[in-house]
Structures are given as structure tokens and as C-alpha cells.
Amino acid sequence: MHTWINALADLQARGEACVLVTIIEERGSPPRHAGSKMVVSAPHRLDTNGGGPRG
Fold first, then answer.
1. Which of 15, 23, 25, 36 has the greatest number of C-beta atoms within 10 Å?
2. Using one digit for the tens of pLDDT, what is the confidence trace for 10-53?
3. DSSP H helical segments within 1-55, as ranges?
4. pTM of the predicted structure, to 2 decimals
5. CA separation (Å) from 55 to 5, 16, 34, 46?
6. Residue 28: φ, ψ to 5°
């Protein structure tokens, strides 16, 4: 299972506002592919959309 799904569930359970960032299109040589996701909240960031693929 994707860790971003777990992060969203945990943040929702705590009532913490967050956003799910998703790359929808690639142009040039991006560090991540279309469909890559990351979760961002005020104090947390899970994964990254830069620096190359993870898994």
C-alpha cells in the first residue's frame, strides 16, 4: 500500500488539514513521473516530488 494513503488517513483522524500534491503531466526531464504524489500539512511533509523516483 502507498504510504501517502496512510498519511492522509492519519492526518484525517487527527483532524489536521493537509493537501495531496499529484504530478499530472511531465515536460522535459522532471525528477518524478506523472502520478507521483506527496502529502503536505503545516508541520509535515511525506515523500517528495523532486529528487528522483522512490520505489
1. 36
2. 999 999 999 999 999 998 888 888 998 888 888 766 666 555 54
3. 3-14
4. 0.66
5. 15, 27, 14, 14
6. 70, -135
User: Which cell numbers in the block locate residue 10?
Assistant: 492519519
Cell of 53: 523516483
Amino acid of residue 19: V
Quick one: cell of 20? 495531496
Cα distance between residue 53 and residue 51, in whole Å: 7
Torsion angle of C-alpha atoms 18, 2, 36, 16, degrees rounded to 10: 0
Q: Which amino acid is at 49?
A: N
What residues have CB less than 8 Å from 19, skipping those under 6 apart? Answer: 39, 40, 41
